[in-house]
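We modelled the chain as a single entity of 201 amino acids. Its sequence is:
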Amino acid sequence: RDLGVVVSNRFIHRRREEGPLGNLIADLMLEAEPTAQVALTNGGSIRADLESGPLTYGGLYQVFPFDNRFAVAKISGEALLALISNRLQGSGSLFAIAGIEIRAACRGNEFFVQAFLPNNQEIQKDSTLTIVTSDFLASGGDRIFSAVGLTQKDFQISSERIRDRLATLLKKRGGIIRPETFFSPDKRRISFKGTPPIRCE
């Protein structure tokens, strides 16, 4: 099934670092849930590059083959900063994120994380935000949310498959999509020095 979108160049998937494909999917997830300020998906949910040329549903299925559904929850700024810190210091794949910019760095032996909304407002520990993710992560997958005290009971799970909604949004978007629109090495969504797992020594 043709989705009416042409991929200008291959969107490369990078599990251990930020890339255009993860950012595209996170952007579409955020667009799909207007109440959310943050979208987050795990790198392991993406299984193939998005190849150049006319995009079909089959091509999208290869990229995102799991029947994951949307999960929405309120999250504190403290929990959000903690899960970001956990992931950057852990050994798993890096998540893809939309809606915020993350800046992380070592200050002496301490790993310090900041997150900013699009208006450059810094997210404080006592802030409350709405996040959209997948039911896999909401139910404890990759321990992203369970490690900061959130369980599946904290999330509202949609009946709609993420992949199907992505297909609808891409068809609505139409035209040509380009990797450089979603990722620039000079302006990353997640900024830090080194390669995860990050150790401050």
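As a brief sanity check on the tokenised model: The helical segments are 20-32, 57-63, 77-89, 135-138, 162-173, 179-182. The radius of gyration is 16 Å.
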